[in-house]
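Hi,

I'm pasting everything inline rather than attaching a file, because the server keeps stripping attachments. The sequence lines come first, and each chain or strand is labelled.
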Amino acid sequence: MRMYISPRAPKEVLDYAQAEANDSGRHANHAEGSCFPLSWNLPPGADLGEYEWVLNGFDTKDLPSINLVPVRRDEPWETIDAHLNRFGAEYLLGIMPTLWQLEVRFHAALRRSGIPVMMVPPINLASVPSLFAQFPIHTVLTPLRYLPELRTLLPSRDPHYMTILGPSDAPIECSPGGKVSQEVHLVPGMVALFQCETLAARPTTGFHPSDRFIWEWENDRLYVTDPAARFTRLMLPRHYTMREETCDCGRTLTLTEAV
Amino acid sequence: MNKFDRARGVFKSCMENEYSSFYRNLYAGRLAAGYSLDTEREWQRIPLLSKADIIAVPCLKRIFVPYQRIDEVWSTSGTTASGICTVPRIELRHIPLESNAVGRTYLCFHLSANRQRMYLPDPSVKIMVADRGNLEATAALAARFGIDAIAAPASAAIAIAPHLRARMDLANIRKIQLIHERCTLLQLRALEGLYPQARIVSYYAVTEGGGMIAISPENPPTEHPLAVNPLPDAYVEIIDGDGTVLGSDGDVGELVVTTLDEKVLPLIRYTTGDRARIVVRDQPLFEVIGRVAEERVKIGGGEVVLSEVERVLSELKHPEIMDFEAVVTEEDAAGIPTPKLTITLLCSEDADASRASEIASHIAEGLRVTADKTYADGERKGVFAPLQCIIERYGGDTGRKRRFLTDARGT
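And the predicted assembly:
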């Protein structure tokens, strides 16, 4: 079964995606490495001053294919926006590898809500308790791999953890309570799949697909297309089952890791 | 507007603002009514604050604006053993654009992109940020990014050079912006050799004292190539151990900085803990030469401080020496535990390791210590070398080892 998950996508984009698939006979495959396999070009006449450069992968081990790609500085980070709207958090701490180049976009996302920016590179995780002692930090945004160390460093604190996974990373099973939400990024800072509060509280790992992209699902595989045509029919490396259900957050689709 | 006029305005808002209890407490009982802040003598009644004083007051208690106006919270690394200090920032202070005329695409080490914008406010200047975690990957990306400038601690700019050289012509690097750590003369000479076309610009910044404080002039004096000028809104003093302000060229003391336009922590006379020399009082021009509380070790009949090792090494004029590490251990000399200083000379690839003992003799001479000490203890006789040199190829992460490190037994 093939199913377009994003029926609201412009027809011409879907046609373009279909034509690309027919021409190449196959989909681009994200599973070939953690790097985004396509290079992105700036639109003609783009103002360089409006763009920042982000890494197209998560790990410098993928050196041959890793690169820097331009992303608009004000490109939304919808999970941060939604989280701040939901909880009215006043202090949010970001922990991000320096090489991801995400600080400027993180800064832009927080300043839209008047939130001071606090960032700690993973090499300085030891300074996190000091920040917690001075600020009522409500939420920590961090790659999933630093979650165990953070919990060790903050034994008496119980912040919300928004955790970032690469497309190849295995999500964790969440304990009920919803204090850890997970989001799968295509490249650092580009949210593809995310958990609303309801999904984060479930013991099974489910995700909503981002409304920003066009999604197709076929035989437990997910394909993603960018309406701005920066990438087309990219296959995500992990397998997902799809369920149509109405979530408490109002969304109607849930993707769950296929066993 | 002179410094006193600006400071008066800041002082008034510090005292009257509804959020400014920190300042009211700070000045209570110290500054009498009618304090006009218009003479040097009155200026010097502003209390001196150390990092410990700032840490003692929680971050949110020492701002006098609503927290929503805080743009970014910086935290120091805590490597000076005085604790981690968090400092809020509003509207990052910029240095003049003309200072950034060279270099459009930066590789920037150990500084967030947001913070780097303080140095480079022109949004068309592109910034790639990195740390020393994977120099190979960083160099590969930087070469693809087409960098023509580097903003980094000197040790990182030296460490990345061989990785970059494998991928690009280092003559394409037109500017090295030295940040974060104090650069030594040795490192400066190494950088000049590695990046022959680069203009090397030195900065002095203190996170707790308002960020950017000073920048090297267009043409620094030949004999003081790392001297810097304070920025227009930064006021610099050099004081002696009693807190007396020094005022003659060549005077050496502790550097005190006060930023007047800083939005969150203005008008703090911050004692930096850095030792500095007045180079030209009237320009003003100063150079940072070390830390005030330098470790001293007794070896070979003399007392050695780290800045002396640095001075002697730079005077040796061995171009292959790029940096050094210093470790003090306690060794057995005929049954007597005796301190020993091992200096690892971090050198370029063409260094001759067989010259280590010859260089050690020169260093010992420069430090006025004994290189070899003959001992006799009953049946045991021998020679103990309290100072040893090892030549190693430059490996990179040395900035924090330019202080005496003791082994587990201590000295």
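The domain at 296-406 of chain B is CATH 3.30.300.30 (GMP Synthetase; Chain A, domain 3).

If the labels don't parse on your end, tell me and I'll reformat.
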